[in-house]
Every structure is written in structure tokens, then in C-alpha cells.
Amino acid sequence: ELARKxxxxxxxxxxxxxxxxxxxxxxKTISVxxxxxxxxxxxxxxxxxxxxxxGKVDVLLVETIFDTLNSKAAISAIxxxxxxxxxxxxxxxxxxIEINGTMLAGQNIEAFYIAMEHLKPLAIGMNCGTGPDLxxxxxxxxxxxxxxxxxxxPNAGLPLEDGTFPQGPKDFAVLAK
Length: 177
Description:
- The protein is an alpha/beta fold.
- The chain is built from 6 helices and 5 strands.
- A 5-stranded parallel sheet has the order 1-2-3-4-5, covered by helices on one side.
- The protein is globular and about 45 Å long.
- The chain starts with a helix and ends with a helix.
- The model is unreliable at 168-177 (pLDDT under 50).
């Protein structure tokens, strides 16, 4: 609600402002630890998505996806919510890839995209994880197969006290090339 208020305050016809509501990750995983059921996770994602839509977000961002089955629970919840409220808003999906080149549950970026492409997300991409240097090749791969927008925000870790990131600003600029 606060983000919606700020976006509305600063929006103009020439420069509209949009609000993205972030969903996930959780500390639960269906595939790796089996410490939650699909239905329980789906219910948790439904509750998160509903609260964000009630707060008037423009887009839902399912982020830091480390297990494709978890993302399917999130998408299932979102689709149920859209049906219940009688409207849809755009969805963005963002995975996190570990140093070994796969998500925590073992899927690589190609497998993740293929499992999600039928959903026709507004964008698909990566965040968090290994930082900019180790994300580049996965992003190139994703960009070569994706039929939608690509998103990347290498937000692994907190900034240093001086406001810079451990990798340094030059590493973030490399991703733009």
C-alpha cells in the first residue's frame, strides 16, 4: 500500500510508475528437503499474492526460485487467485543459480525456462545467488532461448558500509553488455 501511494504520487502520463510485489522465496522446499507439501506451499503463496494484489500492485514477482516445483506451487496459487478475483496482472519469474550452475534442486536455467515458458510470464530471469560474474553465462543462455523479456538483479548479499557491493560497480556494468 505504501509503494502504491508513492507510485501514484510520482506518476505522470509521460512517466507512469508501477509497483511490483515480491513473493518468495520461502525457507521450505518440496524437492530437496520435503519439509512441506505442494498444497501447503501453494496456500502460503496464495496468501502472499492476495495481500499484494489487495495492496494494488501492478505486477507479481516470484523471486529467488531455487526449486522449479516450488515455483509451480506459486504459479498454481497465483492462477487460482486470478480466477477467484476475476482479473489477472503480469507475473515475472526470477530464479537463483548456485555456483555449480544449477538451482538448489538441481535444474539448470534451460530446464527452468522450459518448465515455465508455457505460463507466458512478462519476464523471466535471475537474481541473487552467485553475483554478477557467475550469472553472465546463464543469462546469455536464457536470452538465447527465451521468448519473453529477461530480467536480472544481482542482489546477492548486502552492500558494504560505503554503499558499494562486494563485487564492485564495474561488475554490474558488465551485465549490461
